[in-house]
Amino acid sequence: MKIAVTYDNGNIFQHFGRTENFKIYTVEDGRIVSSEVIGAGGIGHEALAGLLADLGADTVICGGIGGGAQSALQSAGLQIVSGAQGDTDEAVQAFLAGKLSSEGVNCEHHHGSESHGGCCGDSEDGCCGDNEDGCAGGCCGGDEEEGCGGCCGGGCHEMKVILEGKNAGKTVKTHYEGTFNNGTVFDSSYDRGEPLEFVCGTGMMIPGFDKAVVDMNVGDIVNIHLTPDEAYGERDPRAIFTVEISQMEGTAGLKTGDHVYLSNAMGQPFPVVVTAKDDRTITFDANHEMAGKELNFKIELVSVEA
């Protein structure tokens, strides 16, 4: 197994959304056999969860974490242990000994995007994912008045309740199963055995999911159908771009279907998928993989905390 710990000069960094480094521990037979420090690059929760999953991490140990980050990590299948402090090596040893427990969501801030541009410097206008409001294409919810309220990544801003309802602004736990129209299950908290925790009505979740939960009672189960505008938005053709292989180091070995990370104009990595490649050029798609899709959810409200 592999354990990722928010890292700062030997200690656990206390703000998951702003950590600059992770220390990755490889564990075999309950013992640490190796470790390395990698840069986080200040990327958004969704991309960061994908990065840790791609590195093979099973567990994340951190200090403070918000509902949006927890949602992204859980969706990527990672176990979260929050509220940890002190030396990273000692924390991992405590976790392996069964002496470290999680505090759940313990950061009362929403991590909004500080860098809304999806610039990569190689497309015609230098950007690969900006919508009309200037937000990158991977937003997962949002404040319709400000346009960017639901983007996941970057710094901390005060949490803003953007929906009305009895659960708005409250921490809720839900079990859910997500399916495509053909019945294929794409995600399920039931399979992971742990409900999803988030602050309802603050844009941490995709709009349709948030709106469904905001007036539910504990124990209620609802089934909803979401159009793309209620989920991850429509696909943006501007988020698809082609570059010369000779002009981008490291692309020669890529193949169609590969998921990789590129850097924007500020050096922050963002996820893309290779959609085409020939002897001279390679095409990337920075759209969210769920963009343009209709989604169905079975949602069960497990608990509500004021």
Overview of this structure, please?
There is one protein chain. By secondary structure, the protein is of the alpha+beta class. The protein contains 5 helices and 17 strands. It has helices spanning 45-54, 67-75, 88-96, 189-192, 207-213, and strands at 2-8, 11-12, 21-28, 31-39, 59-61, 79-81, 109-111, 156-158, 171-179, 185-188, 196-199, 221-226, 240-244, 259-263, 269-277, 281-285, 295-305. A hairpin with a 3-residue loop joins strand 15 (269-277) and strand 16 (281-285). The chain is globular.
Task: Describe the secondary structure blueprint for this structure.
Layout: E1 2-8, E2 11-12, E3 21-28, E4 31-39, H1 45-54, E5 59-61, H2 67-75, E6 79-81, H3 88-96, E7 109-111, E8 156-158, E9 171-179, E10 185-188, H4 189-192, E11 196-199, H5 207-213, E12 221-226, E13 240-244, E14 259-263, E15 269-277, E16 281-285, E17 295-305
Parallel strand pairs: 1-5, 5-6
Antiparallel strand pairs: 1-2, 1-3, 3-4, 7-8, 9-10, 9-11, 9-17, 12-17, 13-16, 14-15, 15-16
Distance between the termini: 36 Å
Q: What general form does the structure show?
A: globular
Q: Number of helical segments?
A: 5
Largest sheet: 6 strands, mixed
Low-confidence stretches: 108-157
The total beta strand count reads: 17
What is the share of helical residues?
A: 10-25%
From N to C, what is the helix and strand string?
EEEEHEHEHEEEEHEHEEEEEE
Helix/strand/pairing category: alpha+beta
What is the beta-strand fraction?
A: 25-35%
| Radius of gyration over C-alpha positions, nearest whole angstrom | 19 Å
Instruction: Round the mean pLDDT to the nearest integer and report it.
Output: 79
